[in-house]
Amino acid sequence: MARSLVIKVTAGADAPERCNQAFTVAAAALASGVPVSLWLTGESSWFALPGRAAEFSLPHAVPLPDLLGAVLAAGRVTLCTQCAARRDITPDDVMEGVRIAGAPAFVEEVTAEGVQALVY
Q: What is the arrangement of strands in the sheet containing 36-40, beginning at the earlier edge strand?
């Protein structure tokens, strides 16, 4: 069995190529049968809110709502607790399927056997 991926994306509209790369790798991995956990941190935290991914645009890239939808459908999406708090995002604000969790959950995921962590 292939190892699973934990992908932490720290960039949002402030670094669109890096942001899109993280979502693209997550969706591609899932399409290949690799289990994926995508962590939204920093400026990517905003994409946990309904409609925010639709505001993101990058030429020659798959639309972010499509990539995020693929990850929500087949993987796990987590919003960083502290990042959410700094942006006044609550559990009631996030899209269905997005959980809010902190560093202990992240560390537990990335230290599990057979896991590869990627940070964008």
A: 98-101, 76-80, 36-40, 4-9, 115-119
